[in-house]
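Entry 14. Ran structure prediction on the chain below.
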Amino acid sequence: MKQILGFFTLSFLILLFFSSCKDEDCVSTANNYLLVNFLDLDTLEEGAINIKAKDTLFYAVKAVGSDSVFYKKAKKVSSLVLPVNPAANQTSFQFTMIDSIRYDTLSFNPIVLDTIFFLHDTPHEISVSYNRKFRVISESCGMEISYQNVTADTNTFSSSALITDYLSRLNTVNIEVYF
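Output, structure tokens:
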């Protein structure tokens, strides 16, 4: 009897999850994207600190334990939107950064250029943990997962700060990394 009841409960939850959202009230502000900004700190002559976005070159940004690459080489970005694992309470990201780029000519007729990337000695890593909260929006909309109490457990960048401890669709910055 217990197994049958468990099966019906699971079936009901799956039906709720996969049912289409028909109500106009089916609004969710939750998502699973961690927003990381890269900032340049510049100390001015008068002692004030000027903070501005820093375009950073990444060779690869990926989740640790996964072969999925979120950003490809030579793409300059000052912020990254990284998906956290919805099936776990912790996700780690590995950042392989480019120190310099050299363009070599392989042939002249036709001209063929080769791009050589010189990578930073060790990749950086940010590991975040979070609490997942499940909520049924309505019977026809299904359920949403929100992510709260985000903490940066591991961070190998020299200076950073946790700004917002929840994930939101409102483009709220979660972590700032300073160079």
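The radius of gyration is 22 Å. Will compare against last week's run tomorrow.
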